[in-house]
Amino acid sequence: MEQLIYLDNAATTRTDPRVVEEMLPYFTEKYGNPSSVYSFAAANKEDITKVRAELAGILGARPEEIYFTAGGTESDNWALKATADAYGHKGKHIITTKIEHHAILHTCEYLEKKGFEVTYLDVDENGIVDLNQLKASIRPDTILISVMFANNEIGTLEPIEEIGRLAKEKGILFHTDAVQAFGHVPIDVDQMGIDMLSASGHKLSGPKGIGFLYIRKGVKIRSFIHGGAQERKRRAGTENVPGIIGLGAAARLCAASMEQRAKRESALRDHLIDRVLKEIPYTRLNGHRTKRLPNNANFSFQFIEGESMLIMLDMAGICASSGSACTSGSLDPSHVLLAIGLPHEIAHGSLRLTLGEDTTLEQIDYVADKLKEIVEKLRSMSPLYEDFINGGKENKA
Amino acid sequence: MYSEKVMDHFQNPRNVGEIENASGVGTVGNAKCGDIMRIYLDVDENQVIRDVKFKTFGCGAAVATSSMATEMVKGKTIEDAMKVTNKAVMEALDGLPPVKVHCSLLAEEAIHAALWDYAEKHHIRIEGLEKPKSDISEHEEEEEY
User: Fold this and answer.
1) CA-to-CA distance for A354 and A236, rounded, in angstroms?
2) Quick check: helix, strand or coil at residue A143?
3) Strand pairing partners for A67?
4) A383 and B34 in contact by Cβ < 8 A?
5) What is the 3-state secondary structure (H, E, C) of A8-34?
6) pLDDT tens digits for range A300-314
7) A386–B138: do the CB atoms touch at under 8 Å?
8) Kind plus residue range of the DSSP H or E element containing B28
9) Chain B residues within 8 A of A386 when measuring between CB atoms
10) What angle do CA A329, B27, B126 make, to 5 degrees?
11) CA distances to A204, A266, A387 from A260, in Å
């Protein structure tokens, strides 16, 4: 198969050509600075306002609660650091989970150095946060709970509504990193009790370098980037107009097709999961079987290592990712896989396949076939598999 | 990220397999760090490595260095095989990314571990060969970077 099979949509997505088309005029024709007075540029301000309203509509929020940022990481940093800054006098305790993205975890580590205390909640074997532990972790000085909407590696959806309710009862701010979820699953900030929400454009067929932070009206966090009066003085810097237009277009397209897309992608995902679990022995699915993102499949293949798998898949024209140490640049495999209780050697053999709008059944079948061959080949040269097979023989004898 | 030679040895690894009743077998590394190499040697009465096979659990570089290391010691006397260093293996592969240098160390260790096993079984002493570490610790790998 000559064609590229892109199954790494959790890393980034192809920008939808319709999105690019909407963005293009904002580079060479409508290039004015939205803060300028003349009508040529001021029209851009109105266009941005429209996008704000569209995004707010998707979340059940108000337009003035949407603040554009340079992406998910900035949104996460802003939410945490600015909350710590604004509410630090009330308390120094933050609750998050062990399976957050590094944009949250490393920001928490930074805040710990600044005198904050952070509780990292455990998750169960499916990656679902323990609500009882959350309840027990709440203290009088807890100022913020930050739990991701959906995990980027194993796709597990967290009980956001329950967490939101709990946070509200206790008067604690609730932030969710919804970078993987926004545009893919329904989100309602009021119904779910979300006070802040991070999202990113390039995970939903929008452009890179643009995202937003939803901040509920009344939440007192201030600017993180200082300068001009953009974004109601809360986020300085000339607006990334083409990016904002692209984010708006992508979100609009995603929202309109969400139900049908989720149905289609989860059917393909389930087909992939069924085939892999049935046809490749000593394999496990990581993440919850049903409470997971429609496009995410994550497996661990025993006795083999992830990076070798990725290279072989690449040779077969398939783009995927792994939580093995070799792909993380450290000696430890993914913190998410360790948090769900996988031993190191099984975490090293993990593979994440994330589907997209263009993924077809033929591609999924081709991937399952190739995967079978690759796992078999790598196992045939694995000393762990040799020991396992010989151990089995000895036990029988 | 990898040189053409590394990719070639990863895609078409030489000497994969096992040797029954091998003269020496050595296993190094650990699954925790994500690399395990096992080398089988068939050494003849003139102390020439007649055949060598390997099995590796690990990344592309781990497989390629195992493959290259086995190629480099095959047909050599034990004395000459001792001269195959991790540096020589890396050079033969046209280099490795810095984070993968430990893979070549592991390959050298695996050959030495198999030779040590051979020496113990045959009650001989190999000049310059030290008792292999059962494991390459994370600390030592860090230092080599």
Assistant:
1) 34
2) strand
3) A213
4) no
5) ECCCCCCCCHHHHHHHCHHHHCCCCCC
6) 999 999 999 999 999
7) no
8) strand B24-30
9) 18, 38, 55
10) 120
11) 15, 10, 47
A180 contacts A254 by C-beta, under 8 angstroms: no
A326 φ, ψ (degrees, to nearest 5):
-65, -25
Chain A residues within 8 A of B40 when measuring between CB atoms: none
Average the pLDDT over B60-66 and give the result. 95
Residue A32 exposure: Cα atoms within 13 Å on the Cβ side: 16
Residues of A with CB under 8 A from a CB of B: 303-308, 311, 315, 324-326, 329, 331, 333, 344-345, 348, 380-386
**Residue owning tokens 């096979």:** B53
pLDDT at A394: 55
- CA distance linking residue A332 with residue A339, whole number of Å: 12
The owner of tokens 């590696």 is A153
The answer to whether residue A56 scores a pLDDT higher than 50 is yes
- For the ranges A62-71, A232-241, B104-113, B130-139, the lowest mean pLDDT is seen at B130-139
Q: State whether A308 and B59 contact (CB < 8 Å).
A: yes
Edge-first strand listing for the sheet containing A350-354: A283-285, A296-301, A350-354
Answer left, alpha or beta for residue A60, where phi above 0 means left and psi between -120 and 50 means alpha: left
CA dist B56 and A207 (Å) reads: 41
What does the block give as tokens for A135? Answer: 């309840």
Helix or strand run (H / E) with residue B42: strand B35-43
Q: Which residues of B touch A308 (CB under 8 A)?
A: 10, 58-60, 62-63
Is the model's pLDDT at B144 over the cut of 60? no
The pLDDT, as a whole number, for residue A397 is 41
Summarize pLDDT for A236-251 with one digit per residue, the tens. 999 999 999 999 999 9
Residue range B40-57, pLDDT digits in tens: 999 999 999 999 999 999
CB atoms B34 and A305 under 8 Å: yes
Q: CA–CA separation, B41 vs A324, rounded Å?
A: 30
Q: How many CB atoms lie within 10 A of CB A70?
A: 18
Look up the pTM and report it: 0.92
- Kindly tell me if the per-residue pLDDT of B140 is higher than 60: no
